[in-house]
Amino acid sequence: MSKFELYNVVLKDINNETRVIEYDLDDAYFKKIDSPEVQKGNIKAKVTVQKKLSTFELQFLLDGSITIPCDRCLDDMEQLIHYKEKLQVKFGDKFAEEDEVVIVPESDGAINIAWFLYEFIVLNIPMKHVHAAGECNKTMVVKLKKHITRQKDDVEDEDNSSADFDDDDDFTPDEVQTDPRWDGLQNITENN
After folding, report:
1. What three-state secondary structure class fits 39?
2. What's the distance, CA 11 to chain centroid?
3. Where are the beta strands (DSSP E) in the chain?
4. Distance of alpha carbon 171 from alpha carbon 8, whole angstroms
5. CA distances for 56 relative to 28, 77, 98, 101, angstroms
6. CA distances for 50 relative to 17, 44, 81, 88, angstroms
7. Could you give the CA distance from residue 185 to residue 192 in angstroms, rounded to a whole number?
């Protein structure tokens, strides 16, 4: 028995009805997936399968939360997940993904959606995921403030060093002077 057998959706048994399958994606599911992005969570997944002429339409509705490390302090934080997605599946000779359609072997007559569920969750994680203002680990924020201070003649892009702290009440970066050559270029876009 495969560790993902529970996530096999048998398509050959579906004719003109709509089938709804529900999954609880908990810590055990994420441990089975064994991927570094998400290790813990509690997601309710509702998958609606409907046959349409020569294809099957799978509609996914994911709702819940996952635990991921904060980009700022590295402590665990809860990230809410609410996501809808559709997947078109049809039978063919061998497994393939073409444009928006997944082809599964007709001899199998089923598709395993365990990895699709995980991909939809990971795609829903924002690029920047940090605690709400004031909720980061105070010790880490103090250490970061100590190492982020900048010299006024520093020519690095100011967004690289202070971007992660824009939302935090506990952190205020030092005043940084901008290069006057770039200030002149900003006037070009403002005048157009």
Report:
1. coil
2. 27
3. 8-10, 18-25, 40-52, 55-69, 76-92, 96-98, 101-105, 110-112
4. 48
5. 29, 37, 15, 10
6. 7, 20, 24, 10
7. 12
pLDDT in tens, 105-125: 988 899 999 999 999 999 999
Task: Tell me which H or E stretch contains 141.
Answer: helix 138-148
Residue pair 148/160 in contact (Cβ under 8 Å)? The answer is: no
53 forms bridges with which residues in the sheet? none
Listed as own residue / partner, the contacts of 40-44 with beta carbons closer than 8 Å and 24 or more positions apart are: 40/66, 40/67, 40/76, 41/65, 41/66, 41/67, 41/81, 41/121, 42/66, 43/81, 43/117, 43/121
Q: Give the Å distances, CA to CA, from 90 to 46, 68, 94.
A: 20, 35, 11
Tokens of 139: 């010790």
Single-letter code of the amino acid located at 109: G
Measured over the CA atoms of residue 179, residue 169, residue 164 and residue 124, the dihedral's sign is: negative
Highest mean pLDDT among 76-85, 135-144, 146-155: 76-85
pTM equals: 0.72
Distance, CA of 90 to CA of 152 (rounded, Å): 60
What does the block give as tokens for 70? 């904060």
Query: If pLDDT is split at 50, 70 and 90, which confidence band does 90 have?
Result: very high
